[in-house]
Design a protein that fits this description.
This protein is an alpha/beta fold and 245 residues long. It has a domain of 165 residues: Rossmann fold. The protein contains eight helices and ten strands. Strands 6-7-8-3-9-10 form a six-stranded mixed beta sheet, sandwiched between helices. Strand 7, helix 6 and strand 8 form a beta-alpha-beta unit. Bound molecules: adenosine-5'-triphosphate (ATP) and magnesium ion (MG). The site of magnesium ion has 4 residues, from helix 1. The site of adenosine-5'-triphosphate has 12 residues, from strand 2 and helix 1.
């Protein structure tokens, strides 16, 4: 039985002044499905994710979520609909501690008081990073004092914790070591088990082939094609990315 797509992108286009970043892009994403978005630098991958998450509005085309046309004016509206993102630049608040970042926009308040319940946020944050094996000194550590890999771990922990419907991952393991990458890939598989739909951007074709159900190739803003991962190979994908046969 065909399920209803969670996300439908139809004929999406994004223009920045004279630059066409994404042209006529269409894709359906189903619950529990992992689609990898690949393409060289500047192909339009991050722009596409930002249109889904409400950071940018498409110049043209439609985005539907569970059949309903949506037009988010900012990322918090997408978040309210169960969409979480790990941005390429991570989008963490550098001056704030880890626990505040994990609760950004969803801070806990003391019962009946307009005061932050820091104790309970710290406690939950500590548990979360331990569960996900993100090695940081403490949930109270300030983001700017963490390493690149630790920051990436925090951004991923936040997104995987809150994602209910859809998670958009822009190079989530680019700064991670081998062991940490393996852990993140396990988390992604667990999200799939929870029926969350996943769109992942990665320059690692090994990772793309390990994780994805389908692979979508972009080249200079153009959608080159979509392949079922089980029915293609690296040679075909590389040829699609580069345009060289
Ligand atoms: N805010 C912006 N203003 C103007 N041009 C932009 C903006 N964002 C992206 N672009 C342009 O759109 C094109 C696509 O950029 P995008 O960041 O989506 O590429 P990408 O596929 O994510 O590349 P990378 O693999 O390097 O991250 C590029 O030519 C880029 O210069
Ligand atoms: Mg990018």
């Amino acid at each position: 039985m065909e399920t209803q797509p969670l996300l439908e992108l139809s004929h999406i286009r994004k223009q920045f002044g004279g630059v066409v970043a994404v042209e006529d892009f269409s894709l359906d994403l189903h619950p529990g499905e992992i689609v990898a978005l690949v393409g060289d630098n500047g192909a339009g991958k991050s722009t596409l994710i930002k249109m889904i998450s409400g950071v940018y509005q498409p110049t043209d085309g439609a985005i539907r979520l569970s059949g309903e046309t949506v037009s988010f004016t900012d990322a918090s509206e997408a978040r309210a609909r169960g969409i979480e993102v790990v941005y390429q630049d991570l989008a963490l608040a550098d001056q704030q501690p880890v626990y505040m970042n994990l609760f950004l926009g969803r801070e806990k308040l003391m019962k009946g008081l307009p005061l932050l319940d820091r104790r309970s946020m710290v406690k939950e944050a500590q548990q979360l990073v331990e569960d996900l094996d993100v090695r940081i000194p403490s949930a109270k550590a300030t983001i700017r004092d963490l390493s690149g890999g630790q920051r990436q771990g925090i951004a991923i922990a936040r997104a995987t914790h809150w994602a209910k419907q859809l998670i958009l991952l822009d190079e989530p393991t680019a700064a991670l070591g081998v062991a940490e990458t393996a852990k993140v890939e396990k988390q992604i598989a667990a999200l799939k088990e929870r029926n969350v739909a996943i769109l992942i951007i990665s320059h690692s074709l090994d990772q793309v082939f390990r994780l994805s159900d389908r692979i979508c190739v972009l080249r200079r803003g153009q959608q080159i094609g979509i392949r079922e991962t089980a029915k293609t190979d690296k040679n075909e994908i590389v040829a699609m990315i580069t345009g060289v046969n």
